[in-house]
Amino acid sequence: MTLDQSMSTSAVESSVRSYLESKLKTTVDPAQDLMASGLVSSMFAMQLVVFLESTFDVAVVGSDLKLDNFRSVRSMTALVERLQGAGSDG
User: Fold this and answer.
1) Do residues 76 and 52 lie in contact, with contact meaning Cβ atoms separated by under 8 Å?
2) 47-51: long-range contacts, CB 8 A cutoff, minimum separation 24
3) Which H, E and C letters describe 14-82, residue by residue?
4) 8-62 pLDDT, tens per residue?
5) What is the pTM for the complete model shown?
6) Largest CA-CA distance found in the chain, in angstroms, rounded
């Protein structure tokens, strides 16, 4: 297991949540629908792509760029974990 993969779900979730709360100036529940609540626009979602890529050393491309992957803290956490797992396969 690499160092990147050893980051727990709670650590990824905490990092994503902290980033969002610092940018949005409000508390965010991990399951909260950020799009439906109006907290995250499609333009801000692109900032989230950059944050996830730079923080977790993943590449978010193609079908992974769909808004559903950025709808909640939990969906972003799942995306990061999936991409980190995919990166370890080759």
Assistant:
1) yes
2) 47/23, 48/20, 48/76, 51/16, 51/19
3) HHHHHHHHHHHCCCCCCCCCCCCCCCCCHHHHHHHHHHHHHHHCCCCCHHHHCHHHHCCHHHHHHHHHH
4) 889 999 999 999 999 999 999 999 999 999 999 988 999 999 999 999 999 999 9
5) 0.86
6) 39
